[in-house]
Design a protein that fits this description.
The chain is elongated. It contains eight helices and seven strands; from the N terminus they run H-E-E-E-E-E-H-H-E-E-H-H-H-H-H. The protein has one domain. 38% of the residues lie in helices and 8% in strands.
Length: 260
Amino acid sequence: MSRELAHIVKGQYGEFCMVRGGPKCSCPDKSNYRKCDPKCIWDGVSLSFLQGTKRIAPAGYQAHHAVCVSSVNTLPDAEVAAERVAKALYVTRWCINRKRNMIALPMWGQTVKWYSNIGSAVQTLIKKGAQPPFKDLPQHDIHHNDADGYTSEVTSDIQTVWKTVNKKTKACEFNAEDLCTDLDGLSDKWKEELGVRGIRQGGTHAAWTKAMGDDNFQCWVEPFSMAATASCGRKSFPFRGKAEGKLASIVKAMKGMGVI
């Protein structure tokens, strides 16, 4: 029943806004959903890439909510508790798109494109020593919504907050300012945690560089992952060892066929 209730009232509880930025968010204090960090716009860097077989991903960064939209929209399982939380939200002014809750993150395809120079003409390969402007930032599409990924951790924290709200509401002790403080605290916590995760294994650039020459280096994914270290698992590295030579052969063959 709580899932149904969450669906019915999802997104907007009075002045408590939990919808993504844009036309759906009419909050007076909403922040720059798509301009969450001007320093991370990465001007002059063409980072659009092909997702799947048809869709071209945007060239810019991804605007990530430190406290996730889906996490805040997940009410307690118990119906009575969910109703108490919903009533508390109605008298609380807070917007999930506030700048304090936003951080700019790159996507994995952008990182791969940065470290390679594989355009439509399939030119030469790896850029030597050039660090991307978004180094040491986890990738927005690596372990974000996995079973044990980033979102699950944030949701767990939110459920703890809801338990407190439920308890205080039941005792007629709920204070909207306290809830805002708790949510802002989670925004700070998770933005800081993403920064810490992005420097595991020496950071994204160091991990990438080491992985290129070490087939046994399986922990390279850690700084690129949004998840806790224990949940990073394994991910195939796109270029190993003599990748430059392999792609050079491909380019040579394609030139021979008149493809490029």
